[in-house]
């Protein structure tokens, strides 16, 4: 597996610690446990760069990774974990809101949804948020290795219909199915911005 040069730069729990840098950023957003950190690791061909866990709510800060010295991958904390306290949820909302609203260098958001379930209300809210801020996004349907080819097609169609976009890529961080297409989308967004 080809490895892409990547390094962890910082974990921000407050907008004042976002990198002071003009380089392009690609953000990974989605429900807790949907596979954001796994997507990041599998795209880069590096195990354990972004911490993954079967315990939802693992990633609680906004984590910045510098890729090929030229742009950032941004791993956002997941939403929709039922056991998270109200207070934490509010803090999460504010942090993400500020991030999405105040980062002109954010060239692409990748919204992850679980291929095995219909997109949730929070997923729809997230999508509205992105549209409200005029941010370009693609949807990645994760964990398709758990589905048959037929179920996979259905999941993709359902995500397209519910989220109102045809920019949906089926993905598995285990088989790496979909990684070529995800990289294409990332590279063209980053190239357009430079
Ligand atoms: P938070 O940081 O809590 O928001 O979660 P996350 O979205 O970063 O999820 P993470 O990557 O930690 O993955 C959660 C669980 O799903 C882990 O047990 C992963 O191994 C598993 N997982 C992630 N992607 C896939 C996939 O494509 N296929 C399968 N079968 N399992 C996956
Ligand atoms: Mg994570």
Proportion of residues in helical segments: 25-40%
Q: Can you give the mean pLDDT? A: 90
Assigned CATH architecture: 3-Layer(aba) Sandwich
Q: Uncertain spans, ≥5 residues at pLDDT below 50?
A: none
- Tell me the major beta sheet: 7 strands, mixed
Distance between the termini: 28 Å
CATH superfamily: P-loop containing nucleotide triphosphate hydrolases
- What is the element string, with H for helices and E for strands? EEHEEHEHEHEH
Q: Any idea of the CATH topology?
A: Rossmann fold
Strand order of the largest sheet: 1-3-4-2-5-6-7
Helix-strand blueprint:
Elements: E1 6-12, E2 25-30, H1 36-44, E3 62-67, E4 71-75, H2 86-102, E5 106-114, H3 121-132, E6 137-142, H4 149-163, E7 168-170, H5 179-193
Parallel strand pairs: 2-4, 2-5, 5-6, 6-7
Antiparallel strand pairs: 1-3, 3-4
Task: Give the gist of this structure.
This protein is α/β, with parallel strands linked by helices. It has helices at residues 36-44, 86-102, 121-132, 149-163, 179-193; strands at residues 6-12, 25-30, 62-67, 71-75, 106-114, 137-142, 168-170.
List keywords for this structure.
194 residues; alpha/beta; Rossmann fold; seven-stranded mixed β-sheet; 5 helices; 7 strands; 35% helix; 22% strand; globular; binds guanosine-5'-triphosphate; binds magnesium ion
